[in-house]
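Known limitations

Structure tokens in this collection are predictions and should be treated as such. Users comparing against experimental data should check residue numbering before alignment. To illustrate the layout, the record for Rhodopsin domain-containing protein is reproduced below. The input appears on top and the generated tokens appear beneath it.
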Amino acid sequence: MAVETQSAARDKSTIIQIITWIMFIGSVLGVVGGMGTKYVLTRQLSWDDGLMPLALAASLAQCIAISLAASNGLGKDQSTLSSDAVDGFLKGEYASIPFLILSLALVKWSISAFINYLSPSSRHHQAVMALRGVIVLWTITAILTSLFQCAPPRTWDYAHGLHCIDRRAWWAYVSAVNILTELVIIVLYFTIIGNLQISRMKKANLLTIFSTRGLVVAATVAQLAVFWGAIPSPATDNLTDNLWLPILLNQIVVCVSVVTACLPYLKPLMDSLESGLVRANLPGGSEEEFSQELSHRSGGSTNISAYGGHHQRSY
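Generated tokens:
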């Protein structure tokens, strides 16, 4: 009876499921709020806006896989579980990883499109192309490695399978590239915002919002550190209890990544960006003079929208 009570007290499966779905709901609210704000203010959405719902779809699939892993014993003492339950946990975790990586990659790609729209600089566009190349290679290699982490037919069973990869080294690679690409994104943001001709207060506000991508870096570092210490030796020692926290931290990484990618669409920031981007592209004179000049030459109207990435001048 005492053993059963102690085991029940250590059961974290319900908490894992609750937090997992709270994180997903937070991601949904972030995307809906960001895209909704953008549409209300610009009356248009671009192709890259569709990447965020796709990232949510991948995140949803990941959450379902984690819920299945939790229902099969994630967060419980492995000694209290049947072999079928442990196998179910391994399959759930196995299924979640490709969707985790895909979700993060889609968010990064959406941000790269936004950065392209922010700056007309060819140097920035070249940097974005290089960033995208790294993201594509990282996504392909990380997902393929996760799918074939052990020799067939039991590719998911790193606890009992034969010829499995070093999971610590593999996850260090996944996390390191994730961190590196986020740092590049932050540097590009700061470089572009630094060139905007806006007040110091507005510039500080913009830099504060864009620097929230640093939270993704912090969450990824924390997850890697916990994961590194949680991998038992040998690999069959209480996996279900040891890995609950690193798996939960992955949900937090995804949520933070999605939400911080949507923050730039807040209306005050949109107004600051639009004003600054217009001025940054003026060859001289005021914004009003620039608009009048365009209108005079074309006999039409000028619509300059910095958001969502579109500097559109309809003449």
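For this record: The chain is about 70% helix and 0% strand. The CA atoms of residues 164 and 187 lie 37 Å apart. Please report discrepancies through the issue tracker.
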